[in-house]
């Protein structure tokens, strides 16, 4: 059973002494959040891509599928997608990469959807390679997802001029683009056993982003409550508090209550794992109650295989009895109509 340590309670109460340079004022953060509709949506990758590289490389960039699947999101009232970039796709073709990001943002805007762009990521395969990506492993959750920049690159390249150029060029290009809602600078820093090895890159990506002075807020989501040093830096340097929670509602509510002590707007940028009792039915209404942005994992069942649970592969590749993540099948059919009805209701979308 997980326990909230005294240190964590103090941390989440904002008692850390880490100095947050150039962070937005509380007043600016509150005004920004008040100007938004309730932020609701999903982590998005088209069903035809196994990972970020397949999404963004020229040969496999798929605007037709992106357009169609963002239409599914618009139909149920989702207004925000969280989308991962990848530095290797940029390195291979900087101008083409930025053009494809612009194309994606145009398609999202067509569907009245804003985007949270994610820069770095410590989750899954530590050895990303440009070029043709491998085929999915049947029944295995995210069998082809790639870290960015990988490992040991996240440690060895923490001060890299190459990574700094990437971060600053991307943010500079879109820093005044109102189609970009927020910059999520580092997904789950310290994951994959890295822990504080990720701290130098985490600190640098905030510094590099602040130098550009984007109009959008910066954040890096809290996700593992045992990572006290990383959590303190993330919480004290994020303009908007973002976090991940895949636990049941009783635990999630305690996390919300503690994070609320920061007195900052909040967005849950990852949630919804049905077999862990974290469902739309018991979590989305709670997030709406607290006026917390709600970004679930997964929109359309596809090559990422996220209908399968993290630790429960199905070697045959047959559909699990209960999906772990995702909302729609490829043809736009909902996995569960009752979930769609709830999402539409909370998004004030016509349910007829």
From TrEMBL:
Keywords in alphabetical order: Glycosidase, Hydrolase, Signal
Glycoside hydrolase family domain boundaries: 72-299
Signal peptide: 1-20
Family matches, as InterPro entries: GH (IPR017853), Glyco_hydro_5 (IPR001547)
GO molecular function: hydrolase activity, hydrolyzing O-glycosyl compounds
Keyword Ribonucleoprotein: no
GO biological processes: polysaccharide catabolic process
Pfam families assigned: Cellulase
Family, per entry: Belongs to the glycosyl hydrolase 5 (cellulase A) family.
Protein's recorded name: Cellulase (Glycosyl hydrolase family 5)
